[in-house]
Amino acid sequence: MVTIKAPAAYYNEPGILERSGQYIRSLGHYALIIGGPTALSIAGERLNTSLLAAGIRTEIKTFAGQCTVEEIEAYTSIARGLNVELIIAVGGGKVLDLSKAVAEDARLPIVTIPTIPATCAAWSALTVLYDPHGKAAGYRPLLRSPELVLADTALLAQAPRRYLAAGIGDTLVKWHEFAVNLNGNAGSVALRSSVATAKLALDILERHATDVYNEVGQQAYQPDAAFIEVTDAIIWLAGLVGSIQDGSVHAAIAHGLHDSLTRIEDTHHSLHGEKVAFGLFTQWVLEGKQGAELEKLVSWLHELDLPITLSQLGITGDINQNVAAIAEGLALREGAAEQLNFAVTIEAVQKAIVQADALGQKIHSGLSQKVIV
């Protein structure tokens, strides 16, 4: 059996926030808005004005913590107590992930409005769980994607460009992370579909990501076609990659290393896509990439200001101890490593992290010749 989970509609265009009410009203007329404090301060007034004009009453609750099982239960109780007809999530990945799980538990439709282009959380049928201290606590597959995704490119372009870089990092990982599994599972049409979608996203990023990243943040910047394509890759295509499933197992090394990194408190200031990017760097070393090929790939991460050293992730102190903890914390699904044509043992991962950090330090310090993608 193959399942493909996707929103009923996805909009990615400037000014959609001001017109949001006309798209949302078909889902209900009494909404619980869950949003981050910063997101609501930026987008809340325009959203609420449009909703009220469309005859939609709202209750607003802020969320600024970790997406934990306990927080999901608490906000689900709020939604049930208010007897709302739908959920509207406004903000970054943790707010969107929490709200999707709340909507599923309360049996309500959900609209996601991302305010930063940092992940595919607005699209995906998945909630990433953490513990109260910010450590990864697993994944919760959801029955469906949000009913409606409203991505306002004018709003996304206003976000600090660090979030854009993180979104680019999280997206370019997808092809590299999925494609290596074809070695042992080339017969899976679902996997091949995911790889093809991820390749489309990667092609877009290779054409536009660096220029868009350099332009965003400049005074009076207005999102253009290239920005829209890049954010489509981050939200839509990356979200679709993980939404095509046939039950087969694949290894997600970069994301597994992300989860392990979250268990080191020094990394908690780093964004999801930043940790994933370093995880991908480590995967490249595990794969045996080296020389000019590896430097070219890593230089691209460096141009996007993504971390290519352990110190850029915030890791200080006993490096050997931290490297050992990261490697030991990498957990792949049972049977996943068998899909690969390279070893992913604790010892191999430790060695790869050390090698990646050493090369990253050279590139970061300018000792290695910069290779432009």
Automatic annotation (TrEMBL):
The UniProt keyword set, sorted, is: Metal-binding, Oxidoreductase
Q: Extract the PROSITE patterns matched here.
A: ADH_IRON_1
Q: Which SUPFAM superfamilies match?
A: Dehydroquinate synthase-like
Give all residue intervals belonging to the Alcohol dehydrogenase iron-type/glycerol dehydrogenase GldA domain. 7-153
Pfam families recorded for this chain? Fe-ADH
Q: Does the keyword GTP-binding apply?
A: no
Entry annotated with the keyword Oxidoreductase: yes
Q: Which family does it belong to?
A: Belongs to the iron-containing alcohol dehydrogenase family.
According to UniProt, the name of this protein is Iron-containing alcohol dehydrogenase family protein
Organism per entry: Paenibacillus wenxiniae
